[in-house]
Amino acid sequence: HAQKEFDATIKYGNKFIGWGNKHNFIHWLDFHCHGLHFDTSKFSQYFLESLPSNTYDFTLLDQKITEVNITNFGMYLNGERYDFVIDCSGKSLLDPDIYFDAPFPTVNTALTVRIPEAADWEYTITCATKNGWMFGVPLRSRHTWGYCYDSTITSEEEALEDLKTIIKRDDINYRKVQWKQRLSGYLMHPSGKYAKNGNTLGFIDPLEGFAGSYYDQASKKIVEFACRGYMHVEGTHELNDWYYDHVVDDWIKNNAWCYHFGSMYDTPFWRRTKSVCTQYLNDPDVYEINKSESFTDELWQRISYDDDLKRKAVIGELEEAIGGLHSFVSNYRH
To answer: Taking a C-beta distance cutoff of 8 angstroms, is the pair 217, 248 a contact?
Structure first.
């Protein structure tokens, strides 16, 4: 049903090309999981059309929010009172300045190209390039490439020139997308009436689709909170503590972990990014390690000689050894 409605294909993992010393490998999802590549415009259109007629007591308001206020009585959007608001606008209706930057730079710009040819690889392509990396997403009617790079190192012209050598097309019509690598200072406002999710909550870069996983976790937590009651102050603190421990911390570590392996390219982008991510992982404030050891060496020393840790790495249950890092670990060395 989803494939038909959303022009979707099934995803079983990510194929990495040119990454690290191993260069090519597939990071499979867990055995019992699969994902979807889908057309976001069709996804939105489907729900906007179906929810009003199929959901109890649901009203769709098509309006631009120009005024936001919060009082002891509730949230006010354009003068109308609401008990609870989840902001997924991407721009932050409330507290647009309460954000912090990612602790290290990676990519901040993408040139996206739609190719009008169907594709179904059953995985997302993540291909290293000399200026960063490129994603490939297959759909039933087309496929899309996204050339990701750091605009402070690589110009748009340089990125486009390299993109043409990879997909080998001269007639490229591309769209340029830029973002600021940042994360919100909170998930739930202290009032308990306003929560952030989606790009309003934060965005680092598209690598591995980490964002979607964290948005999904946040969504579940927000709904649980709302169902318990909006004015639960302790619950607000608990939710924000969870956000820092399980979204902010993990998201940053996961990105650092993937990038610190580097790629087959010895270029300014990869030298810089590999270095800053390795430094981050070896920071004693990030992981408690002996001063004479590096995080990476200590981690693999523990795993390599312990069959139980190897097994846990493969099935993604390596919490005690890697402190919450993504199961990317298991596919890289095992």
So the answer is: no
